[in-house]
Design goal:
Structural class of chain B: mainly alpha
Radius of gyration of chain B: 35 Å
Number of helices of chain A: 9
Number of helices of chain B: 5
Strand content of chain A: under 5%
Largest sheet of chain B: none
Shape of chain A: rod-shaped
Order of helices and strands of chain B: HHHHH
Distance between the termini of chain B: 112 Å
Structural class of chain A: mainly alpha
Strand content of chain B: under 5%
Helix content of chain B: over 70%
Order of helices and strands of chain A: HHHHHHHHH
Oligomer: heterodimer
Largest interface: A-B, 53 and 57 residues
């Protein structure tokens, strides 16, 4: 009878250990799943931030900057020229009367005005080139601002996505609770059964009986029993 | 026997937390799309029109000042008797150069106006994005409220052009100077017992 009880106890011990292990595995797997899901979300945010960063890198590329600056210089100079060609010509109208048909003076005025236009045009060209840098920096900064906004958005979402992680990991840690509890129960039962069988054998030996017990296996298992279970549980288990 | 009571509570809390984070993300992405949609109307055409508005405001003023300066110069040259002269042509040439450079300046200013408009609109957009984040983040709300104050009134109303051709008559007598000279000359001649010469033909009123 005691051999059977000890054998059942040993099986319960093994089953308990297995269930506890299964509980740990389940919790571990759940935690890994939580982390993998968060990794996937963070990867998306990272890609979005990377897009913004790459956009900013492209905006500050020297070749791109040179092209934009040249385009801005041309646009500015074109605007100057468009205004120059649309300008009123009061001098020419006024001078026609004042010259009184003096062709030499009229030609001289025409040359003076041509020189004036050429001079203003060359200054306008230089002015457009000069202003083009500031305009290009302004345009570039606008693009950089947009890129930074994209990076900031990704960072903001990333930060807030991490907030539930603690709760999710805590929840994942409970995933194997049923198996762990069952394993713990089985282990306790097994220990008590083995301990009970050992206690009965001791009583039989002290009474002069010839019970043959495998002392090694029983004593080894009994040492893991809590004192209260060992002492208080014998009667119940033996009766069962 | 129950093994799962505590686990269920933590599951529910974690699910609530994740749902809140997902809702916040969805709200922000929806809000960003709405902001981008609203601000898509502020495109290059819009900013170019802001610049054109300044041109329409300033260029007529400059044209009028140029026409007036041309007339003033013509009268001043006539008063000096050099209406048709190389000096007159040189001064007309300088005035024309000055006019073109002033026109370039007005074009530059119109670009500044367009750039300022772009910058102001972009700042307003950034403020809205800050507000969007702040709806789920109280610390960001305070920062957005502070920075929003900087967006108010950054673009002053354009002022009228000042005197752009003030030096066109440098070295030439104005009508008032010419009149005063004639008065002084007449007084001097009267004191000496002579009469005032007939030189009023060179007093061309400008």
């Amino acid at each position: 009878m005691c051999d059977v009880t000890a054998a059942i106890g040993a099986v319960a011990l093994v089953a308990g250990a297995y269930e506890q292990h299964q509980g740990v595995v389940k919790a571990d797997k759940a935690a890994v799943n939580v982390r993998r899901a968060e990794d996937a979300r963070q990867k998306v945010y990272s890609q979005e931030a990377q897009q913004g960063f790459q956009q900013n890198m492209d905006a500050t590329n020297k070749d791109t900057f040179d092209q934009t600056q040249a385009s801005n210089a041309k646009a500015r100079n074109d605007a100057y020229n468009a205004q120059a060609s649309a300008a009123p010509q009061p001098i020419q109208q006024q001078a026609q009367g004042a010259m009184g048909g003096n062709k030499v003076v009229a030609d001289s005025l025409g040359e003076a005005l041509s020189r004036a236009n050429a001079y203003a045009g060359s200054l306008g060209n230089a002015r457009a080139n000069l202003n083009s840098f500031g305009q290009t920096m302004f345009d570039t900064n606008q693009l950089l601002g947009r890129g930074r906004q994209q990076i900031a958005e990704a960072g903001n979402l990333s930060k807030y996505s991490l907030q539930p992680l603690d709760a999710e990991l805590l929840s994942a840690g409970h995933k194997g609770d049923k198996a762990k509890a069952l394993g713990s129960l089985l282990s306790s039962i097994g220990s008590m059964m083995i301990g009970g069988a050992g206690g009965a054998a001791g009583m039989a030996a002290s009474a002069g009986g010839n019970a043959v017990l495998n002392r090694g296996s029983v004593s080894g298992a009994s040492t893991s029993l809590p004192a209260s279970a060992y002492s208080g549980g014998n009667a119940g288990w033996l009766a069962a | 026997m129950c093994f799962g009571g505590g686990s269920s509570a933590s599951d529910q809390y974690a699910a609530e937390q994740r749902a809140a984070a997902q809702k916040r993300e969805a709200d922000i992405r929806t809000g960003m799309a709405a902001i981008n949609q609203n601000f898509s109307k502020f495109n290059n055409d819009f900013y170019n029109q802001q610049g054109q508005n300044y041109l329409n405001f300033a260029m007529p003023q400059l044209n009028k000042q140029y026409t007036d300066a041309t007339h003033d110069l013509g009268y001043a040259l006539a008063r000096q008797g050099i209406g048709a002269s190389s000096e007159g042509n040189r001064r007309y040439g300088n005035l024309a150069t000055d006019f073109q450079l002033q026109r370039q300046g007005v074009v530059d200013k119109s670009k500044d106006v367009a750039n300022q408009a772009r910058s102001d609109v972009e700042n307003a957009r950034s403020g809205l994005i800050g507000d969007l984040y702040a709806t789920a983040d109280p610390s960001a709300a305070a920062a957005a409220a502070t920075s929003k104050a900087q967006y108010v009134g950054t673009q002053p109303a354009p002022s009228m052009l000042g005197q752009m051709f003030g030096n066109v008559l440098d070295g030439l007598n104005t009508y008032q100077q010419q009149y005063q000279n004639a008065q002084d000359y007449g007084s001097a001649m009267a004191a000496l017992g002579g009469g005032m010469p007939s030189s009023s033909g060179r007093n061309v009123r400008g």
